[in-house]
Write a structure and sequence with these properties.
Two copies of one chain form a homodimer.
Chain A: E1 2-18, H1 29-37, E2 45-51, H2 52-57, H3 61-71, E3 77-78, E4 83-85, H4 90-93, H5 95-107, E5 115-120, H6 122-134, E6 140-145, H7 148-152, E7 162-164, E8 167-171, E9 179-182, H8 192-197, H9 199-209, H10 211-225, H11 229-249, H12 265-274, H13 281-298, H14 304-317, H15 329-343, E10 349-354, E11 357-361, H16 366-383
Parallel strand pairs in A: 1-9, 2-3, 2-4, 2-5, 5-6, 6-9
Antiparallel strand pairs in A: 7-8, 10-11
Helix pairs in contact in A: 5-6, 9-10, 9-11, 9-13, 9-14, 10-11, 10-14, 12-13, 12-15, 13-14, 13-16
């Protein structure tokens, strides 16, 4: 038999910048970025797609972006108009949102050396990232995450996606951005609920990877609850850093079955879905983590004291550890089945070996899940 | 300014197998392949999507595939039914073809550790590869190319795509297959026209990379015209090998502007488009190569004798070097503009420095293009 063995590696590099007031004329980060990346001999364009909720919270934003790019128009050409779309999960459900971005990419001649920028929360960034990834086999994509959750987690990662066939992220790709810009100005207009819910992913990475960061979260839970910006900036930087390290050090495009960063997520995805996204992602992740931590305790992996510390951190930052829909037993079982199908191959769930260290298992016991739910329910009721 | 520098490499590996009668029960290549790739603890599925023209040429094919997978059903589960779709460019234009594949991936629960196999020419493989790449962020994709062109060129590469907004490959990704299976049995049912047109890409790689292979083509042009299977098997193997080497050795996901393998393709794409694909891809590529070779001659790069050798090879294998639509002058200019937009950045065109070596230029002169067209027209008329 004749055979050609093909093998090659592709390097992906991008920076995550942390800078205040990124679109202020005196902030040269973006200008310098485009000067570095611009291709010889041609002038690149940039198309902006912005979450309209962000514009409501920052009424000067569009004027600021226009002014920034008009100042540096020799470096990069801003496409007029800027596209505004609703944020939240709905933007991933509606195919006309994707169509609007694709249509603009075509109409304004955005090529593989030009840029599509998304400004918004994780859902909008997922959809814009997907549109960029499939157009001309991949246009340069910039992310400006505006929520805690997108700045510390999804926005700095390599995934995109939209919902299809009523399934979360059924369509999507792995396509690293070319740059991520985390600006604390956007955090100032967040509802308290969104501020809080972003903390869940930080608790997650701390629990599976870094006891010291978990202890920092314990020591700073009150500052975080009080919306202390300095505390939140540290949380976001450290969480984003651990997220990036995990991607680079492991299996960036997830060809295996393990997903340590999905700790607590199998139940969270299902809970979001069955509450029609009334429970937000971070809120659902907090509950999912509490559930799998309790399960870890009942499996003999972490002590009751450690479980108490986890629940206590969530409580102190204002995140619930229980939702009544958790009691719809078979629904959660289906969540486990769907998680298996989405990952493919063998079911792989992360539990806690001890605080700061995750551990993979390949099955979960439904009775023990039920027992964990009842524990969290009692705990939650006692609190009230 | 705080900054996280993210950088990682992703390795992509796959084999291109050359084997006769791949679905014969005694041929263990596929069985062994699945045993090697199957993930621990679960049973993978495979969904087949087949070009119905191939089934017409090989009426036993579906029965053979069913029989093969029923023999090895412990190893891999064949999804029933097999999907049949029309081949040719039309399958990339009709969104319902893509939808049918996505729908089957969803309905039959094909996950990231299962397989989607495409059996057909380059267009069908492009569409099926795209459906696989965007489902669940990438399902394992197998290709069974059935034409000369797909076995020696597109089928062994890393691109997929569909047409959108009436633009060729507007939507697509770079997503390497997990395995390619080149079976000469499929070549036996090809129309003479498709047999011939596949030779154009071999002439292309030979001209830009390997004089010895060009000389082999000169020496074997008559055997190729007479549909000698052994000659064609060598042509396909050598051309596929050079195509793979080029991808692995260069810029696999084409982040730069250079596209040496697109030698002759800017005019070819436009010619296919304006003739509504009556001119097939390989036929158009032969004309495009002849055009850019003539242009190279008029630029002082290759001699009249060398140009004559190129045209002579095309003639002897039965490929024309001229089409009357080339004379629609401004149409070709638009082709150059569209090529620039699709590549993005600076226009980069490959010309011939000498036989066996391409050379990049960044502009083309319209008068000289016109002069080249007139040369090919006179040449073509004299031949008749």
């Amino acid at each position: 038999m004749d055979l050609i063995k093909q093998s090659f590696s592709v390097n992906f590099s991008y920076n995550v910048y942390f800078s205040e007031d990124i679109f202020h004329k005196n902030n040269l980060i973006l200008k310098n970025f485009f000067e570095e990346y611009n291709s010889r001999g041609t002038k690149q364009k940039i198309l902006f797609v912005i979450d309209d909720g962000v514009v409501n919270g920052h009424p000067q934003l569009i004027e600021k972006i226009n002014s920034y790019f008009s100042t540096y128009s020799e470096t990069i050409e801003l496409v007029d108009p800027i596209i505004l779309l609703p944020g939240g999960e709905e933007v991933k459900n509606r195919s006309n949102a994707l169509d609007e971005v694709l249509d603009a990419i075509n109409t304004y001649g955005i090529d593989r050396h030009s840029y599509v920028a998304g400004v918004g929360g994780g859902a909008l960034l997922d959809m814009v990232g997907y549109a960029s990834a499939i157009s001309h086999r991949g246009i340069r994509h910039l992310r400006f995450p505006t929520t805690v959750l997108s700045q510390n987690d999804s926005g700095v990662g390599v995934k995109n996606g939209i919902n299809y066939f009523n399934k979360k992220n059924f369509l999507g790709t792995f396509a690293p951005p070319i740059g991520v810009f985390n600006d604390p100005v956007f955090l100032r207009s967040l509802e308290e609920r969104d501020w809080r819910s972003g903390i869940a992913e930080a608790v997650k990475v701390a629990l599976i990877k870094d006891l010291a960061f978990f202890e920092w979260l314990e020591n700073n839970a009150d500052r975080l609850r009080q919306q202390d910006e300095e505390a939140m900036k540290y949380l976001i930087f450290r969480c984003a850093q651990m997220h990036c390290d995990h991607i680079a050090g492991g299996d960036p495009f997830e060809t295996g079955s393990a997903r340590p960063l999905d700790f607590g997520h199998w139940a969270a995805h299902k809970l979001e879905h069955i509450t029609h996204y009334e429970v937000r992602h971070g809120e659902a992740v907090a509950i999912g983590i509490a559930l799998d931590s309790t399960y870890s305790h009942y499996t003999g992996m972490i002590s009751r004291d450690d479980l108490q510390r986890i629940i206590s951190v969530f409580n102190r930052v204002g995140l619930n550890v229980f939702h009544e829909k958790l009691e719809e037993g078979r629904t959660l079982q289906r969540g486990l089945d769907e998680f298996r199908e989405h990952l493919g191959g063998q079911l792989t769930i992360t539990l806690l070996e001890h605080l700061g260290k995750g551990m993979e298992v390949h099955e979960m016991d439904y009775d023990r899940i039920e027992k964990s739910i009842q524990f969290l329910k009692r705990y939650s009721t006692q609190k009230v």
